[in-house]
Amino acid sequence: MKNTVNVNEWVALFREIGLDQAQMEKWHKVFEARHPSAHQGFLEWLGLKPEEIDRIRSKSK
Amino acid sequence: MNTYSISKLARTCGLSRSTMLYYDRIGLLRPSGRTSAGYRLYTEEHRQRLERIRHFREAGLTLAEIRAVLVSGGKPGAKLLEKRMQETAESIVGLKNQQRMLAAMLRHAASGKLPASVDKKLWVEMLRAAGMNQAAMHRWHSEFERRASEGHNEFLLSLGIPADEVARIRRLSRGTS
């Protein structure tokens, strides 16, 4: 059984419980504003490529 | 013919205007002429010469050495060396990108866990910020448990939650549909 959750599963999980795109974007914005380095670490943990992380973080600023 | 003002040429080559003025003063890069209003005019040939100067600078040559190289023109072998230097510069850029990518992958592979700063408190704070209340968080745990029970387990442990509490949370997650 696999232990890690990839980014698609992660997003699906939040959608399942009713979080929409706008709420997820807000989540990234708050994460970036309050805990920028933790935001980076979390996205790395999800296995995103550096360019993708840069893109998400700059969009969240 | 394409002409450049001093500012435009500086911008194109990523140099400052004052550097260009200095290169003019020491005779390294003289404009071909002036406009009627007295502004320096440069051509495409100047741009190419300036690019070469920039590469030589990056490779560590002094301005005096660069002048000597430019004056000597096409001495046998010099063209080849310059071409190799250009290729080396491109390799450096490529390798730097690779290094950045590998560092990120290594960080991920080595830890396989969240940075210490991402703990339970921060995670709950973030979920609340996204508009999730207690009930929504409960649903989140239930879904996580149902879809990927091992992933759920691993994530909770990564947040620094003690094993017995993790077990309790997972039991509760399974308790409801």
Compose a concise summary of this entry.
The complex is a heterodimer of chains A (61) and B (177). Chain A is mainly alpha-helical.
Task: Give a verbal description of the structure.
The complex is a heterodimer of chains A (61) and B (177). Chain A is built from 4 helices and no strands. With 61 residues, chain A is mainly alpha-helical. Chain B is mainly α. Helices cover 69% and strands 5% of the residues of chain B. Chain B is built from 9 helices and 3 strands. Chain B has a 3-stranded antiparallel sheet. In chain B, helix 1 (6-13) crosses helix 2, helix 7 packs across helix 8 and helix 7 crosses helix 9 (163-175). The model of chain B has no long low-confidence stretch (mean pLDDT 84). Chain A binds chain B through residues 1-5, 9, 12-14, 16-19, 23-24, 26-27, 30-31, 34-35, 37-38, 41-42, 44-45, 47, 49-50, 53, and chain B through 100-101, 104, 107-108, 111-115, 117-118, 122, 125-127, 129-132, 136, 139-140, 143-144, 147-148, 150-151, 153-155, 158.
Q: Radius of gyration of chain A in whole Å, from Cα? A: 12 Å
Q: What global shape of chain B is seen?
A: elongated
Number of strands of chain A: 0
The profile of the biggest β sheet of chain A is: none
Judged by helices, strands and strand pairing, the structural class of chain B is mainly alpha
* Oligomerization status of the protein chains: heterodimer
Order of helices and strands of chain B: EHHEEHHHHHHH
Encode the helix/strand succession of chain A as letters: HHHH
Beta content of chain B: under 5%
Query: Average pLDDT value of chain A?
Result: 82
Task: Work out the helix count of chain B.
Answer: 9
Biggest sheet descriptor of chain B: 3 strands, antiparallel
Gyration radius over CA of chain B: 31 Å
- Percent range for β-strand residues of chain A: under 5%
User: Helicity range of the residues of chain B?
Assistant: 55-70%
Helical stretch tally of chain A = 4
Low-confidence stretches of chain B: none
Q: Which parts of chain A are unreliable, with pLDDT below 50 for 5 consecutive residues or more?
A: none
Shape of chain A: globular
Terminal-residue CA separation of chain B: 75 Å
